[in-house]
Structure formats: structure tokens, C-alpha cells
Design brief:
By secondary structure, this protein is mainly β. It contains no helices and eleven strands. Strand 4 and strand 5 form a beta hairpin.
Length: 112
């Protein structure tokens, strides 16, 4: 049974940083590319970042490029999203996943 559990969200001031984690189980993590997406209140879900199965290739949405970094540790079956220079418009629930499997999300609020 596929399980994806996000953690690390919280309240942060504009300009601050957070690191999200996603612990995966129930599938062969190392062979799948992984992604992060987010959904802000009242908005559609938006893809944020993706990483290849080896971690050698990454891609980002234009809105986060240069501020967010996706990474993974295949030995720990975990993917991460380092978020720097956070803005109020980054406020959302953040999800990790692959294919049509997604976790329950972790909430990030950027506010002073």
C-alpha cells in the first residue's frame, strides 16, 4: 500500500525558510520520479517541482525557481523541498507524490 507522509509545514514570516519532507513507503521509491505540488486557498492545485528517480534531474515551476530546491534520499525513501525567500503567495497546502498517488499534505503559511 502506497503511503506518502508530508511534514515540516508551519507558519513562517516572509523571507523565511522551511524544509518539507515526504516519507514514502509501500513502493520501490528509488525507481520513481517524485513531485511536489501545492494548493492555495480557493485556487487549483499547482505543480511546484519534480525530481528524477536518481536525483540527477530537477525541474521547477517558474513561480518558485531559484527559491525552492527539491532533493531526495533514496536510502531513506524520502524526498525534500527546501523553500527559501518565502512569500505570502507561497501559502498553500503542499503535497508530494508520483503518478496519481499523493499524500495528505502539509500546510505552509507565510505571514507576518
Amino acid at each position: 500500500q502506497v503511503q506518502l507522509v508530508e511534514s515540516g509545514g508551519g507558519l513562517v514570516q516572509p523571507g523565511g525558510s522551511l524544509r518539507l519532507s515526504c516519507a514514502a513507503s509501500g513502493f520501490t521509491f528509488r525507481i520513481y520520479a517524485m513531485s511536489w505540488s501545492r494548493q492555495a486557498p480557493g485556487k487549483e492545485r499547482e505543480w511546484v517541482a519534480g525530481i528524477s528517480n536518481t536525483g540527477g534531474s530537477t525541474n521547477y515551476a517558474g513561480s518558485v525557481k531559484g527559491r525552492f530546491t527539491i532533493s531526495r534520499d533514496n536510502a531513506k525513501n524520502t524526498t525534500y523541498l527546501q523553500m527559501n525567500s518565502l512569500k505570502p503567495e507561497d501559502t498553500a497546502v503542499y503535497y508530494c507524490g508520483y503518478g496519481h498517488y499523493w499524500g495528505q499534505g502539509t500546510e505552509v503559511t507565510v505571514s507576518s
